[in-house]
Write a structure and sequence with these properties.
alpha+beta, 7-stranded mixed sheet, Aminopeptidase
Length: 171
């Protein structure tokens, strides 16, 4: 798989992957698929400050990864939360791992100290993957999401990326 910075031309493929996840999994706690305009706005905003990466196989986008602000308050400026999603027919082949691993040096270059992951508690493959990548389980938010009449729980995980310098600056 080739991993590169996403462009606006990749947003329709990102949208397809994103909407499949919304519709067919519990990885994204949203009720409705996103529109192209919403994903374009997200991409413009996110890519101004943070990486948005896509993975390609045979010229087709098969996954994407990114990280962004975890919390907006100043004291959290060295912590980010990541997202990774892989096209349904390409899951379980190690592509998600590659898309996450490439985020680590990008985060370190931005002086990020900690990367956060919030994962649906039923997503056992994703939980195992994150543990293999060095993320530590730090808690479970029980029954915080309601999807299709089911209460869902979220596992919080974190991984240290970089020890900030004496005069750290992320922004």
């Amino acid at each position: 798989m080739r991993i590169r910075d996403a462009t606006m031309a990749d947003v329709p493929a990102i949208l397809g992957i994103y909407n499949d996840v919304v519709t067919n999994t519990t990885a994204i706690y949203d009720q409705h698929p996103s529109t192209l305009e919403e994903r374009q706005d997200w991409f413009e905003t996110r890519s101004r400050r943070f990486p948005v990466l896509v993975g390609e196989l045979n010229g087709a986008v098969v996954g994407f990864s990114t990280f962004g602000e975890w919390r907006s308050r100043w004291g959290y400026r060295f912590t980010v939360e990541h997202s990774v999603h892989v096209r349904a027919d390409c899951r379980g082949k190690g592509l998600g791992r590659q898309l996450i691993e490439v985020l680590f040096p990008r985060a370190a270059a931005m002086n990020v100290h900690m990367m956060i992951a919030h994962i649906d508690s039923a997503a056992s493959a994703s939980l195992r993957l994150h543990e293999k990548l060095g993320f530590e389980r730090v808690g479970t938010f029980r029954e915080v999401g309601l999807m299709k009449e089911d209460w869902l729980s979220v596992v919080a995980m974190q991984k240290a990326i970089h020890q900030p310098t004496a005069s750290p600056s992320l922004r």
